[in-house]
Design goal:
single chain; mainly alpha; 316 residues; 0% strand
């Protein structure tokens, strides 16, 4: 099935399958990352994991997963399909053959364009996921504020204030409709600017290291990479990409978790300045260790499933 056609659908289908597998593998640590970056009261990654487990059981790690499972599969389909087809278009334009191997400059352009395009679909998906993941954090914060105001007038001890069990959002659809009602369409794209700052360089440091590692791990230039090599190259590329993207990811997470009723940040610059003044430079690397650990199995699974699916479809 290897043809010179510039546009292929099998890249999108393989991306869809890879995306679904990566969400299941990576969501628990993604929840930890979001809580560390946008929440309060967590000392480090281990403390965050233990706190979530003790207060919310294992299910706490899978909060908000139904929406990413449905949407990130489509998102990864677009990302991998767009990236692969863009490579072929560049090769056809520059070398006259869509099958011609891309150089590093070609890969960089394709990666940056992919990062830019991904924000259009990814920003609303990330916002809904983060607000669902932060539900416990939001409710607790609101109740602590209430308890503080009551105790000022009555000397009522903080522990006597009961925490209601209801959450702000009933699910993904309710979160989308609530955001649209209170913040408008632009509310769904809150943090999109920070996401561009994250994903344009982030995807460049995702696809290029993957290509380099795959080439290094191949026995010769013409050979197909071994599944083990694909898994390792994908995992290393994911860790590199996520660690370097952490500062922009922190800003994005904070902006997206910042709901209309308790708006804290005016925009990207205000979020950066406020976070730096109140928590120091180290705040921009909060969740970096989680990103490094989470990035490996997620990306290893994503690339391996994508490549194997692609090989299957092209063998038919």
């Amino acid at each position: 099935m290897q043809t010179s056609k510039s546009f292929r659908l099998d890249d999108f289908i393989a991306g869809l399958i890879g995306g679904a597998s990566s969400v299941v593998v990576g969501h628990p640590l993604d929840t930890v990352k979001t809580r560390l970056q946008a929440g309060k009261g967590y000392k480090n990654m281990l403390h965050c994991i233990l706190t979530i487990y003790r207060k919310e059981t294992v299910m706490g790690f899978f909060k908000g997963m139904s929406f990413p499972l449905a949407s990130i599969t489509v998102y990864n389909s677009v990302v991998f399909g767009f990236f692969s087809n863009t490579q072929r278009l560049i090769s056809k334009y520059r070398y006259g053959d869509g099958r011609h191997p891309c150089g590093m400059l070609d890969l960089t352009v394709a990666s940056m364009l992919t990062g830019l395009v991904s924000v259009g679909l990814g920003a609303p998906v990330d916002l809904v996921k983060i607000r669902l993941q932060m539900q416990t954090q939001i409710v607790v914060a609101e109740n602590l504020n209430l308890a503080g105001s009551v105790s000022n007038g009555t000397n009522m001890p903080l522990r006597s204030i009961s925490m209601p069990s209801q959450t702000l959002y009933r699910g993904p659809i309710h979160c989308i409709s609530s955001t649209l009602q209170t913040e408008g369409l632009q509310g769904l794209y809150r943090g999109a600017g920070a996401m561009i700052l994250r994903d344009v360089p982030g995807y460049t440091l995702y696809f290029i290291p993957y290509t380099i590692f795959c080439n290094l791990l191949k026995p010769d230039a013409s050979a197909t990479p071994h599944p083990g090599a694909i898994w390792l190259a994908g995992g290393l590329a994911g860790s590199i990409s996520w660690v370097t993207a952490t500062p922009a990811d922190v800003v994005k997470s904070r902006l997206q978790a910042d709901a209309q009723l308790q708006r804290k940040y005016k925009g990207i610059v205000h979020c950066i300045v406020h976070s730096y003044r109140t928590e120091g430079a180290q705040v921009f690397f909060r969740g970096a260790s989680v990103n490094a650990i989470r990035g490996f199995p997620m990306s290893a699974t994503m690339f391996l499933t994508y490549e194997l699916s692609l090989q299957f479809f092209r063998s038919l």
